[in-house]
Write a structure and sequence with these properties.
182 residues
Length: 182
């Protein structure tokens, strides 16, 4: 199974982002637009995981006792090399602490933290095929004014399972973990 840990978005944030995406979305076959319900802030991508590792991850993540995390969405943009259209997420102290705690908790289960700096974001669209830069440059050109998004407080984080398919990935929640500080 392919697993990752992330923060789901509340309905209000999904509605705001859906309205923004509607303005940029086209029928261009070069971009894949995931369903809004799949949007999330990734804390750690675990990848292919056996059942024993999954059990270890769940047990370790249950041991985390952290407070709820304020989440502030930032600017629309692209990661051109990765071929994605994103909205950034401000790396607040609470969010970075949660991400570090998650990666520390999964390490004994055989998962090493990324060597790259943590750049929290929400992926709104992915390029497909070889024309990766074309569509993203066209989207970037349309991003003329900044957007303001409503902040929210993450009261949970989730262990997701990812299923790859021809239309993109589909995610199912395997386990929920409360952020309450207890």
């Amino acid at each position: 199974m392919r697993l990752f840990v992330g923060i789901p978005l509340p309905d209000a944030s999904i509605a705001e982002l859906t309205a923004v995406v509607r303005r940029f979305r086209s029928d261009d076959v070069g971009l894949r637009w995931p369903e809004p319900e799949s949007w999330h802030v990734t804390l750690q991508f675990l990848g292919n995981t056996g059942q024993e590792q999954c059990t270890c991850v769940v047990e370790r993540l249950r041991q985390l006792h952290l407070p709820a995390v304020p989440i502030e969405l930032g600017e629309l943009g692209t990661f051109e090399r990765a071929g994605v259209f994103i909205v950034t997420v401000r790396p607040t102290y609470g969010l970075v602490l949660l991400q570090k705690q998650v990666t520390a908790a999964t390490r004994p289960c055989g998962f090493d933290p990324e060597s790259r700096p943590y750049l929290p974001h929400i992926t709104l669209a992915r390029s497909k095929g070889n024309r990766r830069g074309q569509e993203l440059r066209a989207l970037q050109a349309k991003l003329q004014r900044p957007h303001t998004f409503t902040r929210f407080t993450a009261e949970e984080f989730v262990l997701y399972e990812s299923f790859l398919g021809p239309g993109g990935s589909r995610y199912e929640i395997r386990q929920r973990f409360s952020l309450d500080g207890r």
